[in-house]
């Protein structure tokens, strides 16, 4: 969640380049510039279009969503090698001398290959869009 939390911390507490590790974040919480943090939280609330008191709930919900998306992205990464094997098997099947004579089977194999490829491309695009929106936020 670094991609999401670091810019958020920089937005609220200001980042002069000192946030490098977890201890730096803890230090920000121990000795915050309360006035500056409050002002920045007001700016953040304005940008998000929510009341300042709703920011913690919003961030919690977004964090939960972010973690869920990360889990599904990990699942997708685990599917990649399997998908490559399926595509290779379909290509091998289509090129087999006996199967290549059965045009209906060849068309079905091509349709399965294309459908699988398109589905995975769409899923990747959704992940990319989510990441772009997170960075924009």
Question: Can you lay out the helices and strands and say which pair or pack?
Answer:
Elements: H1 2-13, H2 22-30, H3 34-48, H4 55-95, H5 97-100, H6 103-136
Helix pairs in contact: 4-6
- Helical proportion? over 70%
Number of helices: 6
Q: Provide the β-strand percentage band.
A: under 5%
Biggest beta sheet attributes: none
Radius of gyration (Å): 24 Å
* Helix and strand composition category: mainly alpha
Note the overall shape.
elongated
Mean pLDDT: 85
Identify low-pLDDT runs: none
How many E-type strands? 0
- Termini separation comes to 14 Å
Number of domains: 2
The secondary-structure element order is HHHHHH
Describe this structure as you would to a colleague.
The protein is mostly helical. Helix content is 84%, strand content 0%. The chain has 2 domains: 1-49, no CATH class; 54-137. It has 6 helices and no strands. Helix 4 runs antiparallel to helix 6 (103-136). The longest helix is centred in the middle third of the chain and has 41 residues, at 55-95. The radius of gyration is 24 Å and the shape is elongated.
